Each structure stands twice: as C-alpha cells, then as structure tokens.
Amino acid sequence: MKGIGLVSLRRRNRGKRSCVHLSSNSSEFSYGFSGSKFTILVNFLLVTWNRMFSFSGRLSKKPKNLKPRTKEQKEIDVLLSKDVKNLTLQETYKLASHLRHTSQFTMRVKNVTIGGVLKVRRRNDENRRMSEDRDSNSTIESTYSQKWDVSLNIEDVKGETRKKIGKGFQRRLTEDSEIGCLPKADSLRKSVKKVVWNEVEKQIYYEQQLRNTIENDPELCGYYQRRFKCRIDKTVMKTNAKTLWRHFNEKDGKQVANGDQEIQFTEKLMKFIRNGAYNPPRNRLQFIVEKSKNWDTSALIFSDIPKEEPDNIKIPHTLLYKYTNRNVVNEKKCPELAAIKKEAEKKIIKCDCCTGGAIKRCWQNPNCPCYITNMKLRQFQQVDDVVVNEKTNFSTFNPVLLRGGNSFFDTIGFACSDECECAGKCTNNVTLLIEKDVHPLELYRKDEQMGFGLRANTFIPCGTPVVEFTGELNHGDVKKSEHDYSYAIFSEDDSFPTMISKVLGKNTKCVAEIKKQFEKDERWFVNPKHIGNIARTCCHSCEPNMSMVRVFQKGFSPAHCRLLLVTHEVIFPGNELTFDYGPGYIQETLGNKCLCNKAGCRCSNIYETFSKCSEKSLEKYQALRYHIGYAEFKRNVLDAIEKKQSQKVVAQ
C-alpha cells in the first residue's frame, strides 16, 4: 500500500454542499460531504497515519550507502577550509586547479538568493518566468523573426497632440533643468568632516540597506535577484581568461605572441590577488554632500590621503563640474545637433504595453516594438572567435553577459523609455537599475597623483549595469585638453549606419536622416569634463571589471544613445570599478607609466612571467581570485548577517 504522504485539503463551497479534494503522490480523490466534522476526522486520521508509518510526502526509504570520500577529496576539503594566506605554493596551485574544474558544475551548487523575499502576487509569477530563461531566447528570436519584415511603428508626434501618459513623461533629450550648478571649492572645503570608518561594519550595513531597498520596492522585489555562488561561473571564468590572454598576446587585433606556460602562484602573484579590495583607513575625510540636483546620486565622497586634515585639504578640479544623469546638447556650440535632436523628438519608437503588475511584460512580447528592435539589433552580434557562443541579451533583470573581445561596436541594445505606455518600468529596460541608483557606490582618493576612483560598497553580480557615462554630446574633433575625458560613441569606421538601415527596414526617411548625420560628422563623442556624473571618476585598469556598451531609447540619433558600464565579473565589496580606456591610453597619455596596480599591467613587476601563461592557467587564476573574494565576503558579511538574524529569532 502506498503512503498518502503530504495531503492537501481544498474545500470548495457548492451551496449547502461542500467537497474535500485529496491529492497524493499516486492519485487524486474527491469526496462529497456536508458539515465540518468529516474534515476534522480526515485530518486526524492522516496525521496519525503519517506518525505511525513515518510517511512524510513519499514512501520512506533506507538511506543510500554513501561512498566514502577519497584521500584526495579530503585534502581538498582541508584546503577549502584554510585561509589562502596559510597555503604553500603547491597547495595554492592544487586548490586553483580544483576550483577551475568545479566551475564546470556551478549550476549544481546551491545558490543563495538575496534581495527581497519573493513575496509577489500571483500575476507577477508569470513575469519572472518570462525574464528568467535565457536559453529560450534563440527560440523566441526565430519565432518572431517572421514579423520583423514589417516596418516599425515610429509615430509622428507633435508637441500639441502628444499623449500625456503620466508624471515625468514629457522629458526632452536635452534636460537643462537636470543639470546641476557648478560647485565652488570653498563650499566643498567647508563641508569636509573627519569620520571614523569600520570597513566590515559598513559592508554589513550597506548589504542590509540594499536588501531592504529591494524588498520595499514593488518594482524590484521578486524581479531583481542577487545570487551568491561559492564557485565562479564557468562562462565568466573562461571569458575573462580569454580576454586577459588576448591582452597579453594580441596587438591591434593581431596575435603577436603565444603564451603557453603553466602558471606559478608565487608570493608576488598572490599579493596581487589578495589585494583585490581597497581597505580604507580608520580615519577618513568625508565631503558631506546631500543628494540634490547638484549631486544627483547617493554616492559618498571620501579623501584618504595620509596626513590630510579638513583645514589643509586640497580640492581637486576633478570635483568641480556640473552634475547631470543625462547627456546634454549645447545648442550654441552645436546648432546642427540641436536641430537633429528636435527632429528626432517627432519620430520615436515606443510601445503600448500595459499588461502586468508593477513591472510590465515587454521582454519577449512579440507585439512590443521596442523589444522587436532590441532583438533585431541582437542579430548583428558576432559570435565567431569568442568564448561564449551565445549572444548578449539586454533585458531589465537578467544579467547582461558580454562575450569578451571588442564587442562595443556590434553589441547594442534597445530599451523602452518614459515615452512608452509602460513608462520604462518593464522587463525590456536595461537602464532601470541605474535610474533607481540601487547599488551604494563611493568616490575615494588614496593618492593625489591617482585622483578619485569609484568603488562598490556591496556585492554586485556579473552582468549588472552599474552607472551611465554621461556628459556633453559633441561632434567633430576633440580638443587636446579634453581628450582624456571624452569617449567616442561613433567613429568613421563604425558600421552603425548600415546596421540601423537594416533594423528600420521600410522607414526610408529615418534611415536617410541617420546616414546624413554620419556623412556630415565623422565622430560623435561624450565629453564629461565640464558636465558629467560619477562615471567620469572610473579609473583605467589593465584588468578591468566593467565594459562599456551602447543602448538606445526612443530612436537612433546620437542624442538617443546611452553609454552604460556593465560588470563582466562579480564585484565584491571594496573592489574598485574600472574599465579599459583603450589600447593607446597607456602609451600616449600615461607615457607607459600605468598605476592600476594589477598583475596583468605592463608596469607590474611580474608582467614578464605572468604574460606568458596559457589560457587554461589564466582560468585557474580567475577561479582563485573569485574564491578569495567570496570567502572574505562570506566571512565578513553573509555569516555576520545570518548570525544576527538567528539571534533575533532566538530572542523572539
């Protein structure tokens, strides 16, 4: 006889008559009855049955005979339990090899999902399922490709007849009201105060603050999930190792060397690995700047230069700029670009998706013009000679996993905007996390020569858009004094016009206007020297943890382009946020004197030996870096929070 196991009772009212529905692992039963005594009797009998025969959801079975762990497995367990600082070079190599091998089974490791309890309504469950499965995108792409030969719904919208959908919907591409005032050095100097800092306590505080923010926001809770894995993801490991190998062995896209040696985890290399996170001093100088139009971010500002006091602190010119979270157009300097912007306002791509809860279901919606445009741009991504044979997706809550290599020119996304019916609060807006300012960031200065840098105070998953690179949108040649700040969004050899002409299809008028823009001006760039945001303080690194991608909203003019910095590895608390300024930056600007202090830097003392490592050896290097970072994060933050929560439960 089979055990009834877990039995669910569902009582359905049918007039005066009721029905109890019993469901088990083997079959289903339905009984009609009148009154509630029968319900009590059935529950009593089932509980008694389960206690007598030890049935708990399925037939009780004898435990399987587990195989005893081998000697090698026991040795690995000992290595995992030890602090990496106490391991010998041979033990470190053995541990790195094991971590590289087990990364292939990352999906089997139980993940810890943090970021708001999944207390969502039933109507939101479907939203999550639609946005969680990355593997289904290829099927969806082929299914919807039949409808893409239809021209997109680009509406002619006039100012007097524009539909008012909600508050804040009538944003223009140039938002002068959102540009802050130029701060004065004296006012910043008066705001400086000395504070006492405890790095571990602050990491715990910011982690709890982030969890509360996600849980209390209906547009994030149940949608945005942060997964903590004890092993590095295989795809991320291979992609970053391949990128680092190319950094060592390629120049201008051509292979000039062939690193094939096995890695040696010397003490010098381990010093670089262990010093991944910045540990600030106990006494810090903080610029007390409240969030406002002049500083529209929650990021804090600190100065950690030794022997510096509030009275003698030097205010660098890098802090004296107008703040904006949107690219702006100076109509006096660029009248042609201003005219293009006004014309682009009349022709926008927007959707009328309005189904769903707090977050609308635009992603994977075959009737959403913004999603269709997003998928059409995805077709142009090149997957040849890359580690990841899967194209990058630009959705709201799924990770934006880049494929490695120089993917800036062919990896482009399209997102819903505030002009859409969904107001950009949907599953097809990769800029949503940036606009919500979710992750606590910090500007810090430890060296006067290096200047300010940007670091994370919490755990940031791989593939997360962290910050947007904003500034003044210009065209033509860049001034020599502003060359170090500017970032080109289009260049003369960019295939973007050809790509867009295929995306827009029958919209010949729009295609002609875009081609006309590129014929007039060879270069378009964002200059944050005088107007910008905190992204201008992101430093260069030879081993960057972020990459820049282009995402368009509303249309495809230069004024519609947004430059997003996306993490291509896991960011642990204290890690500096960096990206690669380009191959010529070290030689032309720095004079071959890079200060990024990374093992893969050409100025490091181990570059000659480290650059000769094989690609598989660099995978071990990536796996060990992640292991050390995760172990410290778990010990300092996760275990401490879990301990506090357990103490609260016991106290209650």
Automatic annotation (TrEMBL):
<dbReference type="InterPro" id="IPR001214">
    <property type="entry name" value="SET_dom"/>
</dbReference>
<dbReference type="Pfam" id="PF00856">
    <property type="entry name" value="SET"/>
</dbReference>
<dbReference type="InterPro" id="IPR046341">
    <property type="entry name" value="SET_dom_sf"/>
</dbReference>
<dbReference type="InterPro" id="IPR053105">
    <property type="entry name" value="Class_V-like_SAM-MTase"/>
</dbReference>
<feature type="domain" description="SET">
    <location>
        <begin position="439"/>
        <end position="582"/>
    </location>
</feature>
<protein>
    <recommendedName>
        <fullName>SET domain-containing protein</fullName>
    </recommendedName>
</protein>
